[in-house]
UniProtKB/TrEMBL annotation:
InterPro entries cross-referenced by the UniProt entry: HATPase_C_sf, HATPase_dom, His_kinase_dom, PAS-like_dom_sf, Sig_transdc_His_kin-like_C
Name of the top EC class for this enzyme: transferase
UniProt EC number: 2.7.13.3
Species annotation: Chiayiivirga flava
Transmembrane segments: 26-46, 52-70
One Pfam short name: HATPase_c
SMART domains named in the record: HATPase_c
The keyword Kinase is annotated on this UniProt entry: yes
Catalysed conversion reaction: ATP + protein L-histidine = ADP + protein N-phospho-L-histidine
Name the record gives this protein: histidine kinase
Keyword Ribonucleoprotein: no
Single GO MF annotation: protein histidine kinase activity
UniProt domain Histidine kinase: residue ranges: 247-453
Keyword annotations: Kinase, Membrane, Transferase, Transmembrane, Transmembrane helix
Amino acid sequence: MAELHPRRSPRPSGEGLTGFSFERRVLLGGLAIALPMTLLCGVLLWRSGSSGLAWSVFALALAATLILATRLRHQVVYPLYTLSNLLEALREGDYSLRGSRGSRRDAIGDVVWEVNTLSQTLRDQRLKVEETSALLGKVIAAIDIGLFSFDDEHRLRLINRAGERLISQRAGAALGRPASALGLDDLLAIDGSATLKRAFGGSSGRWDVRRFTVREGGKPHDLLVVTDLSRALREEERQAWQRLIRVLGHELNNSLAPIKSMAGTLSSMLAVRPLPEDWSEDAEHGLRVIGDRADALGRFMVGYSTLARLPPPRRQPVELEPLLRRVVALEQRLPVQLGDGPALTISLDPDQIEQALINLVKNAVEASLPQHGAVALRWSGGGESVRIEVLDEGLGLSSSDNLFVPFFTTKPGGSGIGLVLARQIVEAHGGALTLEDRRDRRGCVARIELPLQ
């Protein structure tokens, strides 16, 4: 790249301690270097009475000294002009200029090389910032969450497409308007986050509003993030109804189909005259089938009521080890091994937690019995939480998709509410229930995490 030409800028008068500019001081400094020798030669020539030729040579030497001093000034000042132009370009955001003498061979070349490197670094960083800003702009425009940014005077400075739909205004008309004119002034009074029920753009619903404080140009700005919860809640509600209706339909069909079939069979049998000799036995069997299916429907409704009307836990300080020993003692089909653990006292509802553990131990025993496996109950923890695990040696989990779907069961005669009820109890205590396959051997582990406080 060609060397940048010097560009003089107006300078205030009186620069430097002597009132001379830097360029003149360099020139005078170069002349001052040769001044003593020049004076000495002149004095010697004057005292020796030299001829005109000697004085002519002396004049040529003075001219050569002036020329060399001017050349020295040029060599010192022009690289500084180049650096000045490069730095001015950086200050104005132009990172395309480069100095032509950037090298590691001398001091000036080293400075030019560093400025060139700085220019390239700033260019790369600006390119990354622009690419990131473009990507962020695309993401902000694409997400279905309303974003609003207000300055320190509560005037709108940023809005995305979802925000435009919320206030029913285009960005061009909304930018610069105060929050009160946009109907968003109440959201700016929120401290942190809140869930509100209000109307946006003529449609009402539940909204999650979060307010963040950011700084731009040294001034505080408010960033509002508005999320429509109604749509997500409606979708979750729709899926829950679909799962419930599917399970209800499955259970009702399982009970009503044999009842209808058996009722039709009995009606056909009783319509025959004379009646068969064993008609009473067939009628008794048919009525017994109808009664069994009616009992199954009754148990189904009891289970549904249990899930729907689970009371909140009545917490009290409970020692964990005696509670676990009571649960183990209730299982008679298979000896359940109780491991060793720390002595812990937890605030919980003992009746509900005991019922949840009974359900988990019952499932573990029923999974291990066909495989002649063992069941173990152990606990650990301290500090802020406690972990209770029920381990079996059954076949493991075939599928985890429907484990916690109410009334879904793969066991003959199962109600399908044991796991659901256990998880509901644990979550009511602020904990979590998970099921997964064991890693050390075949089987399953049901893990309960409960807070100590």
